[in-house]
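User: Predict the structure for this protein chain, please.
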Amino acid sequence: MKPSPNPDVADMFNRIAHTYDRLNHLLSFGIDRRWRKLAVRKLRLKNGCTILDCAAGTGDMALAIHDRVDGTTTVLLDPAHSMLCEADAKAGTISPARFRLICGSAERIPFRDNTFDGFVVAFGIRNFADLKGGLNELQRVLKSGGKGIILEFTPDRSRLIDRVFRKYMSGVMIPLGARISKDQDAYVYLTRTIQSFATSRQLTDLFTEVGFRCVENRSLSWGIARLFVLEKI
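Assistant: Here is the predicted structure, written as structure tokens:
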């Protein structure tokens, strides 16, 4: 039996969904948009392809995919219903058949083996209840030769950048996030997961263990974030 997502984490994202986009762009100074555009380019999208956006949140990655190649289909999977409602509100004229919303978890992806041409996970794998289990599921539903793109925060930074980043999280991210979202606990949780998550070496070892080849492991913005490009072996 595969584990369910932590209900407390899903509830937390439901609580902050209405302010999540504003805070993301504000706290990152808009750099998160550049990271997402780069990630989408790495997918090498083609017309007619189907992409899973896992831990999709408010749908920014899926929307970036549609902006780049209009003829794609995205499936947005997230355990927080309110986050998907925010994504739905931003879908605009995209057909619901090509912008599918599913409330569910990475550990229980409700699709058959070899379904998707690619997948993306933007700053979501650190919230998986079972990291290895979720990665196994992503590998299972990806077609042979398909690409997976993961954006995440890892501690692979210089001491100086890490010191500045930690001070920014404690001195700006938590108080500002608490003030705008009215939920300090959520931003304490988010900063804690950023600070304690696995290194890129630990992650690449795990990717290999579950059946991926990591073809790119790229530092973004002086090591603040990391981009991984995976292929199914």
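The chain has one domain: 7-154+199-232.
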